[in-house]
Inverse folding.
């Protein structure tokens, strides 16, 4: 029962989707549209699991005072800060901020105190009292401050300047710089690892050098635009042939795995139990 | 221990420092790197350039800040080109942080559209870009493959309202626009698997013209689709973006970055050569020792 | 530029330098930036999932119903079903109830795989096979269109190379027959072609990685340096010294801390 019904579901919906492709009828189209619509909703609930998981790990670190647990507060700060910004927006053209920032501070402190009340073993009453104070403060501010308001059912929050600033000035610099570090690691790898040990490695290196030199004007002085043309030929002929073989292989692999899943041969995705 | 052996055992932080110095030097020194336009990106430019005013282009911003270095300049170049030519744009963002990238790009490009500019001898008057008239930003939904299929039925199926919360029917430009049949071209700017979904679930099912803007890492893998005609053009990495800027005569971040790219490539090629000389010396030594 | 933006730009630059400092070694600044971004990224995703997902696709379809009837009186009551299936996903973390989450999972996997079979087969296998077979070779322009040009990607010769190259590379991946004789020869050619393909990929990868750093250079110059050290800007005289001295204080403090730790570890080597 616990395993059979999912298998039957996979088979029914999988087979339906395959047949729907070949026999597009009005009624099957109707079901198809519903399924596409519904699966998005299910997907949103599924993705929320990831957020919950992150929260659990951070709380666990704080509770057990694991190494570097102090940084977990930063995770909570970023997480709840961005959530608060996303559900609030300024009234009017946003000229006056009123007590918005004090409100955010109180709300964040209230959240931290609530979390401590739940996870801490001692001093529960102290944390609960502090949480009460901060909740009261934030509620009072939100009642009496008219320069901003909460928006849950409409998407004003995504245009909140603080929400955008967190994305533009925290998320973008950090994520892109983290990946920029790869530039240095590839340089250090070029220094140690990319060696023409045999014919195959030499072929790889030569192709790579041609592609890397394609727009080099100093090489173009010697060879004219042949460098660029050669690299374009390399991309469009030998590279195309190699990648096409890989694409065909991947395509066959995907179809074979999908068939195995629909027919219940491959069951790894179910987990144990 | 000779020089090469010492170099081989060098702390890698010196390598990092050397690369930083070269990059900063190449960035500060002002020289022009000529860009040769390749047919792959020329096709995309020509297609968009020949669109009538009022046509609709769907631009899929499917990248996160991780890949913005290469793909953001493409977004800027393509969207600015579209808006200068009074072509309307529908944005989607199917990667996790994509909506923020699109939101930022829309704000920036709208600002740069306010000033008059001359590209390729044609003068374009500055104008205000209006949400719902010049563009529509659909936003994010999970499970991109199924969203792409859903948009083939009707944009309103996965996206009942746009990113800013207004229903699609309330936007003037979306009236009468139901699915890919009403779109002239889809330009997918992506740094991951979403491109595969646009090809397999979008192009091969609904048969619209599809142009790709890819990160350098992915570019080579998508040439088979170019050869088979599933994809009409590819812009690969920063060089692809620079080529588009070159064609549009609208130099931006990509063209500006090619100087540094050149300097860094020379350094890396030098590193590779040094590494290989080290290898040769090592081999020769090995032979000698073996000979004794 | 207003003062708020001025501070944000400086903060963005600080975070950039904090991440770059990892090149030297792991340090608290790096950890601060790293943890902050994990939180912000998750928070951002929550908001987007709500405003771009749950709100328009689920709640707004049920909002003309009443909650005490479980929205069954709304005009589209069937949207309750995916909501229930979605909530069933949340049983994942319970050992006892985890099996419940398999139902919505099965629905998703069924749909995703079912959709994939014809479309992936079509796009990745059939269309690619057509592409190498449908047109035949261009014998008339075997060595290039018009004049002799070996670097013409559409010439007959290039088509032959693509055809033979693809088949050989496929043969290389085919392990059910021993790679000997002509078959082995083809497989060998296949691996050469593959290596050239990987080389091209690698060349592009180097380019891609470098451009990631170029973008950071441009960011630091155009967004930060030109604004932070802009003497015409009215915020410069108030803002810049504050930011500057704060940063100096932070970095000096960290260096002193590092030195103290270093000295301490030297004093008590037994502790290591």
């Amino acid at each position: 029962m616990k395993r059979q019904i999912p298998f039957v579901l996979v088979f029914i919906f999988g087979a339906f989707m395959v047949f729907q492709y070949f026999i597009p009828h009005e009624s099957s189209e109707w079901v198809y549209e519903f399924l596409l619509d519904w699966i998005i909703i299910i997907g949103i609930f599924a993705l929320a699991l990831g957020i919950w998981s992150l929260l659990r790990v951070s709380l666990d670190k704080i509770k057990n005072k694991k190494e570097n647990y102090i940084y977990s507060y930063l995770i909570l700060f970023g997480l709840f800060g961005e959530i608060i910004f996303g559900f609030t927006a300024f009234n009017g053209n946003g000229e006056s901020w009123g007590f918005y920032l004090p409100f955010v501070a109180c709300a964040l402190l209230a959240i931290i105190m609530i979390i401590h009340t739940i996870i801490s073993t001692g001093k529960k009453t102290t944390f609960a009292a502090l949480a009460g104070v901060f909740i009261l403060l934030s509620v009072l501010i939100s009642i009496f401050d008219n320069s901003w308001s909460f928006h849950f059912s409409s998407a004003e929050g995504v245009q909140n300047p603080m929400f955008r600033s967190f994305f533009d000035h925290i998320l973008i610099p950090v994520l892109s710089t983290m990946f920029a570090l790869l530039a240095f690691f590839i340089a250090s790898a070029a220094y140690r690892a990319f060696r023409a040990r045999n014919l195959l490695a030499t072929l790889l290196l030569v192709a790579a050098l041609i592609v890397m030199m394609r727009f080099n004007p100093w090489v173009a002085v010697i060879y004219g635009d042949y460098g660029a043309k050669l690299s374009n030929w390399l991309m469009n002929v030998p590279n195309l042939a190699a990648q096409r073989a890989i694409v065909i292989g991947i395509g066959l692999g995907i179809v074979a795995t999908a068939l195995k899943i629909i027919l219940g041969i491959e069951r790894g995705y179910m987990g144990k139990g | 221990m000779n020089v090469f052996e010492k170099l081989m055992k060098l702390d890698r932080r010196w390598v990092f420092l050397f690369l930083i110095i070269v990059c900063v030097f190449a960035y500060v020194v002002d020289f022009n790197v000529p860009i040769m336009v390749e047919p792959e990106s020329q096709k995309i430019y020509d297609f968009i350039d020949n669109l009538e005013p009022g046509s609709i282009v769907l631009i899929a911003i499917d990248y996160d800040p991780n890949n913005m270095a290469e793909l953001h300049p493409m977004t800027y170049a393509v969207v600015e080109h579209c808006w200068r030519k009074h072509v309307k744009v529908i944005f989607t963002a199917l990667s996790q942080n994509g909506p923020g990238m699109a939101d930022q790009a829309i704000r920036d490009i709208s600002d740069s559209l306010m000033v008059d500019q001359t590209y390729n001898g044609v003068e374009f008057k500055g104008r205000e870009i209006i949400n719902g008239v010049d563009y529509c930003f659909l936003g994010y939904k999970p499970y991109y493959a199924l969203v792409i299929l859903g948009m083939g039925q009707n944009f309103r199926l996965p996206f009942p309202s746009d990113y800013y919360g207004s229903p699609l029917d309330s936007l003037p430009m979306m009236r009468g626009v139901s699915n890919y049949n009403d779109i002239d071209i889809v330009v997918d700017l992506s740094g991951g698997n979403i491109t595969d979904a646009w090809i397999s679930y979008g192009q091969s099912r609904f048969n619209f013209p599809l142009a790709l803007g890819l990160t350098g890492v992915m570019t080579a893998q998508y040439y088979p689709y170019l050869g088979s005609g599933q994809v009409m053009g590819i812009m690969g990495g920063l060089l692809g973006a620079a080529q588009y800027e070159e064609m549009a005569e609208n130099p931006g971040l990509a063209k500006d970055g090619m100087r540094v790219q050149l300097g860094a490539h020379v350094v890396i090629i030098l590193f590779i050569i040094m590494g290989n000389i080290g290898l040769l010396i090592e081999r020769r030594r090995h032979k000698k020792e073996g000979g004794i | 530029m207003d003062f708020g933006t001025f501070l944000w730009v400086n903060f963005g630059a600080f975070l950039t330098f904090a991440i770059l400092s990892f090149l030297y070694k792991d340090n608290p600044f790096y950890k601060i930036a790293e943890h902050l971004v994990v939180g912000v990224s998750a928070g951002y995703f929550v908001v987007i999932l709500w405003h771009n997902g749950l709100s328009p696709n689920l709640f707004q379809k049920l909002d003309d119903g009443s909650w005490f009837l479980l929205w069954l009186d709304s005009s589209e009551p069937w949207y309750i079903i995916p909501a229930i299936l979605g909530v069933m996903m949340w049983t994942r973390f319970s050992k006892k109830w985890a099996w419940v989450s398999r139902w919505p999972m099965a629905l998703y996997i069924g749909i995703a795989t079912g959709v994939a079979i014809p479309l992936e087969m079509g796009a990745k296998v059939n269309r690619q096979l057509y592409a190498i077979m449908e047109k035949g070779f261009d014998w008339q322009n075997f060595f290039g269109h018009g004049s002799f040009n070996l670097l013409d990607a559409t010439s007959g010769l290039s088509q032959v190379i693509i055809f033979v190259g693809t088949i050989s590379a496929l043969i290389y991946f085919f392990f059910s027959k021993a790679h000997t004789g002509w078959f082995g020869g083809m497989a060998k050619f296949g691996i050469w072609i593959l290596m050239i393909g990987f080389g091209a990929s690698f060349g592009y990868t180097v380019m891609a990685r470098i451009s990631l750093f170029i973008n950071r250079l441009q960011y630091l110059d155009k967004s930060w340096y030109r604004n932070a050290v802009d003497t015409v800007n009215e915020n410069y005289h108030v803002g810049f010294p504050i930011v500057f001295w704060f940063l100096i204080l932070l970095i000096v403090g960290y260096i002193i801390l590092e030195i103290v730790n270093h000295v301490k570890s030297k004093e008590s080597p037994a502790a290591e």
Notes: Residues 14 and 262 of chain A are 6 Å apart (CA to CA).
